[in-house]
Amino acid sequence: MPNVAFKSPGGRIVLIVLNKSAQPRSVALAIPGNPVIQACLNPGAAGTFVW
Predict the structure, then answer these.
(1) pTM, two decimal places
(2) Contact indicator for 19, 45 with CB cutoff of 8 Å
(3) Going by C-beta distance under 8 Å and a sequence separation of 6 or more, which residues neighbour residue 19?
(4) 46: Cβ–Cβ under 8 A, 6 or more apart, which residues?
(5) 50 - beta bridge partners?
């Protein structure tokens, strides 16, 4: 899935993920030192995750 990640001016990590598929898609996100995040994105949906 297309995605972009960056560090905000406040020092937080931001990840944006786009599901371009016609089907729901699951994603597991892992940042060292943090719990794994599991999410499901509906078709055409974008998800924003902030640590």
Answers:
(1) 0.86
(2) yes
(3) 1, 25, 41, 42, 43, 44, 45, 46, 47
(4) 16, 17, 18, 19
(5) 14
Place of tokens 């898609």: 25
CA distances from 1 to 9, 29, 46 (A): 25, 12, 10
Instruction: Report how far residue 35's alpha carbon sits from residue 28's, in angstroms, rounded to the nearest whole number.
Output: 10
Q: Could you give the 3-state DSSP secondary structure of residue 14?
A: strand
Residue partners of 37: CB distance under 8 A and separation at least 6: 28, 29, 30, 49
Q: Over the chain (51 residues), what is each successive 10-residue block's mean pLDDT?
A: 97 97 96 93 97 91
User: Given this model, what pLDDT does residue 50 score?
Assistant: 95
